[in-house]
């Protein structure tokens, strides 16, 4: 248990740049206190001292604001950042090197006995406020975005966002290049236009760029068809876009993304 505790302390330095020294981590990090008390309570639970294990778990919740059922199985180098409001159910299983942020729930969707809580494989990260519900599996390297509600299995290295949670991935290279070219044509460098960021503002901008690209293609075809019928057709050039308005939109998008990132840290 104590060898695991040393690893739990060390992993804080790997994942929290605010950590300065071991004394600070041991004395002021509720996530470290919660995992230490859980490892003790889990041993009592497996040893048949169920009431005493629940009493230790209740004491841990009172001290840290983190509720971990003593029956939950937790691997090595587990880190709970901030921690307040985290709930981990009885039959939850967590692998090695996993990270949970504040407000995360690993809960059940049934009142029946047996396996009813999630299983997290190694290297899983669950963002602030996310709810992972039911006997589902988050495979190795999975990521859950803040405030997502996950009720289905997540593939290895998958990223889940939204309510209900859906797996998102990077845009195909061809689509990404097309968006970048359209953005350059418009004189617009959106922060989310070419990044794999499941952000609603970025998604809206990407959708607009896709729509503009299709409209441009249709307009070129229509102009070519009209010119073939009327040689004197005057193809009027489109006016230049207002760069000030574009810059304001870009600044607004960057500002929203910065506030969102700050809320998750």
List the helices and strands and how they pair.
Layout: H1 2-15, H2 22-28, H3 30-46, H4 50-64, E1 67-68, E2 73-74, E3 79-80, E4 87-88, E5 93-94, E6 99-100, E7 105-107, E8 119-120, E9 125-126, E10 131-133, E11 137-138, E12 143-144, E13 149-150, E14 159-161, E15 166-168, H5 173-186, H6 200-229, H7 243-264
Parallel strand pairs: 1-4, 2-5, 3-6, 4-7, 5-8, 6-9, 7-10, 8-11, 9-12, 10-13, 12-14
Antiparallel strand pairs: 14-15
Helix pairs in contact: 3-4, 5-6
How large, in whole angstroms, is the Cα Rg? 25 Å
Output the strand order for the largest sheet.
3-6-9-12-14-15
CATH first level of the largest domain: which class? Mainly Beta
Mean pLDDT metric: 79
The helix-and-strand class reads alpha/beta
Describe the global form.
elongated
CATH-assigned fold name of the largest domain:
UDP N-Acetylglucosamine Acyltransferase, domain 1
Provide the succession of SSEs: HHHHEEEEEEEEEEEEEEEHHH
Strand content: 5-15%
Our count of domains comes out at 2
Q: Give the number of helices.
A: 7
Unreliable spans are 189-197, 260-265
The largest sheet, given as strand count, sense and whether it forms a barrel, is: 6 strands, mixed
| Straight-line N-to-C gap | 29 Å
Strands, count = 15
What is the percent of helical residues? 40-55%
Please provide a written account of the structure.
The chain is of the alpha/beta class and 265 residues long. The chain has two domains: 2-168, 3 Solenoid (UDP N-Acetylglucosamine Acyltransferase, domain 1), CATH 2.160.10.10; 173-264, no CATH class. The protein contains seven helices and 15 strands. The protein has helices at residues 2-15, 22-28, 30-46, 50-64, 173-186, 200-229, 243-264; strands at residues 67-68, 73-74, 79-80, 87-88, 93-94, 99-100, 105-107, 119-120, 125-126, 131-133, 137-138, 143-144, 149-150, 159-161, 166-168. The protein has a six-stranded mixed beta sheet. Strands 1-4-7-10-13 form a five-stranded parallel beta sheet. A hairpin with a 4-residue loop joins β14 (159-161) and β15 (166-168). α3 (30-46) packs antiparallel against α4 and α5 packs across α6 (200-229). It is elongated and about 90 Å long. The relative contact order is 0.07. Residues 189-197 and 260-265 have low confidence and may be disordered.
């Amino acid at each position: 248990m104590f060898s695991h505790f040393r690893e739990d302390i060390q992993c804080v330095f790997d994942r929290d740049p605010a950590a300065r020294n071991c004394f600070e981590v041991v004395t002021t990090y509720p996530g470290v206190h919660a995992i230490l008390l859980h490892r003790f309570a889990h041993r009592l639970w497996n040893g048949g001292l169920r009431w005493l294990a629940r009493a230790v778990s209740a004491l841990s919740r009172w001290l840290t604001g983190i509720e971990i059922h003593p029956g939950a199985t937790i691997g090595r180098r587990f880190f709970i950042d901030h921690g307040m409001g985290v709930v981990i159910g009885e039959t939850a299983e967590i692998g090695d090197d996993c990270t949970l942020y504040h407000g995360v729930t690993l809960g059940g969707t049934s009142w029946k006995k047996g396996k009813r809580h999630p299983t997290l494989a190694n290297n899983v990260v669950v963002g602030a406020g996310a709810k992972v519900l039911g006997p589902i599996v988050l495979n190795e390297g999975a990521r859950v975005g803040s405030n997502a509600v996950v009720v289905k299995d997540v593939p290895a290295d998958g990223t889940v966002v939204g309510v209900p949670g859906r797996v998102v991935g990077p845009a195909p290279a061809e689509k990404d290049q097309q968006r970048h070219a359209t953005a350059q044509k418009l004189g617009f460098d959106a922060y989310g236009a070419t990044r794999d960021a499941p952000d609603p503002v970025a998604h809206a901008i990407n959708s607009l760029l896709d729509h503009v690209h299709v409209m441009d293609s249709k307009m070129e075809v229509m102009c070519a068809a009209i010119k073939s019928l009327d040689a004197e057709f005057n193809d009027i050039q489109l006016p230049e876009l207002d760069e000030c308005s574009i810059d304001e939109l870009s600044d607004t998008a960057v500002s929203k993304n910065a506030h969102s990132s700050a809320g998750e840290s």
